[in-house]
Write a structure and sequence with these properties.
The structure is a single chain. With 405 residues, the protein is of the alpha/beta class. 23% of the residues lie in helices and 19% in strands. It has ten helices and 15 strands. Strands 7-8-6-10-11-12-13 form a seven-stranded parallel sheet, sandwiched between helices.
Length: 405
């Protein structure tokens, strides 16, 4: 897996595959025929993560698939990350007055935008009453020390380890930077005189580390993370990451979380084509494309009728770690706060809107939340062709008193 603001590549993790058996009692014998042993379960999917000799993954998948006790065998795909508050005037995604945009160091990054090409978050905040909706951020972690986002984190799990099991002793710190940026878009504290405001500033964060300190992960880690989030109270799961190849294990984890009542949101990808990216393309996931401050599709954004919604994803201001981090080194970003671009940034905006809807109607169903988020989106250019519904509108989704576009 990779973050949604990075180019997605199709390659599998060396030395491991995912296998689900029709008869668990026959698993050990079926594996023994190929010199293999049983492995740890993958979340709620019923599949196992099996260690195999590096370079033999596809050969063993083919051999195991011929065994009638095997329901399926598949590669463990690499996944990449699909990026009165001080910087609030720069947050056009929440309130667009047509302002021009700069980076944290003052460098101009975008000319004047289009007024109201935003998600009407400020108007939505006046309509919500229930606090603390938990949103799981499946990513590279969230900064442990950051006044704007660390206090919002109420639980964490780390699935970045040799066997992809949750390792409570593993360092959950975000050394890559992507997860902190995504988390801030969802739930950075508002009206605290510093930094930025999240779409749902009273939400809480479940920090689920599934991407390593280089911003990559695996299908099995994501499936484990989804299962953990669903079992630990998440109302919304955000995945700003993606892979080009579908996985039955990953889809099972998604479906199980949906069946437990969770709204699931994911980046559509940054290939600039219509090619499907997973988990975004699964039916029980809201796939999100990226737009700019003029409500125009970002040049990098994946698009197509399989994509559900659009949201601002170009030059989006949010939190970054208050220490050196990989994305900062690669792109010259400052610590603390700065802009990021990608469907990785668009996805958490939609996740935050879904959380606001939960906050308004805590006793509703995930299907109702999803329907409200999608059916109330603004019908901007590209709706029906570049994405199925429009650009998300937080105020309309929570039934607020919303201005006319």
């Amino acid at each position: 897996m990779a973050p949604g603001n990075a180019a997605t590549q199709s390659s599998h993790v060396a030395g491991q595959i995912m296998v689900k058996f029709r008869d668990k009692g026959a698993a050990a014998g079926a594996l023994r025929q190929h010199g293999l042993r049983e492995g740890p379960g993958i979340g709620s999917t019923g599949a196992q993560l099996i260690n195999v000799p590096a370079g033999k993954e596809l050969q063993l998948i083919e051999a195991l698939s011929r065994n009638p006790v095997v329901e399926y065998a598949e590669p463990d795909e690499q996944v990449t990350a699909a990026t009165n508050d001080q910087y609030f005037p720069q947050q056009y995604a929440l309130q667009n007055t047509g302002q021009s945009l700069t980076s944290a160091n003052g460098t101009p990054v975008a000319a004047d935008g289009t007024a109201d090409a935003d998600v009407d978050a400020v108007e939505a905040w006046t309509a919500t009453t229930v606090k603390g909706t938990p949103v799981a951020i499946l990513d590279s972690g969230v900064a442990n020390v950051h006044d704007d986002i660390a206090p919002q984190v109420v639980g964490f799990a780390n699935f970045v380890s040799a066997d992809t099991k949750e390792d409570p002793k593993a360092d959950p710190e975000d050394k890559y930077g992507h997860g902190t940026h995504v988390a801030g878009i969802v739930a950075a504290k508002a009206n605290n005189t510093i930094g930025v405001a999240g779409v749902c500033p009273d939400c809480t964060i479940l920090d689920v580390k599934v991407l390593n300190d280089s911003g990559s992960g695996s299908s099995s880690a994501i499936a484990n993370g989804i299962s953990w989030a669903a079992a630990n109270g998440a109302k919304v799961i955000n995945m700003s990451l993606g892979q080009r190849v579908s996985s039955r294990t990953l889809e099972t984890a998604v479906n199980n979380a949906w069946n437990r009542g969770v709204v699931i949101v994911a980046a559509a990808g940054n290939a600039g084509t219509q090619a499907k990216i997973y988990p975004g393309a699964y039916p029980n996931v809201i796939a999100v494309a990226a737009t700019d401050n003029r409500d125009v599709k970002a040049s990098f954004s994946t698009y197509g009728r399989w994509v559900d919604l659009a949201a601002p994803g170009v030059n989006v201001y949010s939190t970054f770690p208050n220490h050196p981090f990989v994305l900062g080194t690669q792109n010259g970003r400052s610590t603390g706060y700065d802009i990021g671009s990608g469907t990785s940034m668009a996805s958490p905006i939609v996740a935050g809107v879904a959380a606001l809807v939960w906050s308004r109607s805590a006793d509703t169903a995930n299907s109702t939340v999803r329907e409200k988020v999608q059916s109330t989106a603004d019908n901007i250019d590209g709706t029906g062709t570049l994405w199925e519904h429009g650009r998300v509108n937080a105020c309309k989704a929570v039934d607020g008193d919303c201005p006319q576009p």
